[in-house]
Design a protein that fits this description.
Shape: globular
Number of helices: 7
Bound molecules: zinc ion
Strand order of the largest sheet: 1-2-3-4
Order of helices and strands: EEHHEEHHHHH
Length: 255
């Protein structure tokens, strides 16, 4: 059974979808937030406010995920590779490219441009924070600025750390993270693509096993879920590259 995705909109000629399982993340964080707020004796209105703040934060983080995916998709376009669509899943986003770029160097640049967008967001946030802090120091009587820094400070601090986490997460050299693609691209500069993918997929699966075992032993429930996601991503990638290579080999040339 294929679960549905819903179209959010279209930007730069690429459709952005959200997978129905994305709702899980909203409920996973929203329900405990509501329960906690009610246990703390907050009114329905205030509890609703605190859930709405949390959902705004999740949506803000996922806007960064969408921009990250556009970093891949628009770079791929420059190298002549189209994007089928961008889909948001509870665990992150995926820019589904029509094919893997022929040149390993192009794949490497496409993979790096996603985290590069997160780095850009971090630098912009730091610059805005620096300017606001500077104005605040020089105009302590500016009540509107102090107030908005108090209201938005926490939100943007979380967005900042979410972007740091996205970079760190994607440094892991395992499919389907960007680090896995960088590893494959580096290996493909020396070996053929199928061999390079198999090796990168093997590294990803070893990491998935370590992550899963550690998650079970340390009762960090989300780690086995990520491990499963990594394992499936690696298997899928290896199968896709083998299929592509066999098609290239067996398909008769069109005259
Ligand atoms: Zn990425």
């Amino acid at each position: 059974m294929k679960l549905p995705s819903y179209r959010l909109g279209r930007l730069w000629g690429i459709d952005v979808f959200v997978h129905c399982t994305f709702l899980i993340i909203l409920l996973y964080y929203g329900i405990p937030e509501w329960t906690e707020a009610k246990n703390a004796g907050l009114s329905n209105r205030d509890a609703f406010h605190s859930v709405a703040n949390l959902i705004t934060l999740i949506c803000g983080i996922f806007c960064c995920v969408v921009l990250h995916e556009y970093g891949h998709a628009l770079t791929a376009r420059r190298f002549g590779v189209g994007t089928v669509n961008i889909t948001l899943y509870p665990i992150g986003g995926v820019a589904l490219l029509k094919n893997i770029p022929e040149k390993p160097m192009h794949e490497l640049i496409i993979a790096v441009m996603g985290p590069a967008v997160n780095l850009l967001i971090i630098l912009i946030l730091l610059a805005v924070y620096g300017v606001a802090h500077f104005i605040n120091l020089n105009q302590p009587q500016n009540a509107a600025l102090t107030q908005s820094m108090m209201v938005w400070g926490g939100f943007f601090r979380n967005i900042f750390w979410a972007n740091v986490a996205m970079i760190v997460f994607n440094l892991i050299p395992a499919f389907p993270m960007d680090g896995g693609r960088v590893l494959r691209a580096l290996l493909a500069m020396k070996y053929d693509r199928v061999r390079a993918t198999d090796f990168a997929a093997f590294v990803a699966k070893c990491l998935a096993v370590c992550m899963g075992v550690y998650g079970f032993m340390s009762h960090r429930d989300f780690l086995p879920i990520i491990a499963l996601f990594v394992w499936m991503g690696a298997t899928q990638e290896a199968a896709f590259v083998r299929y592509q290579a066999s098609r290239k080999y067996h398909e008769p040339e069109l005259e």
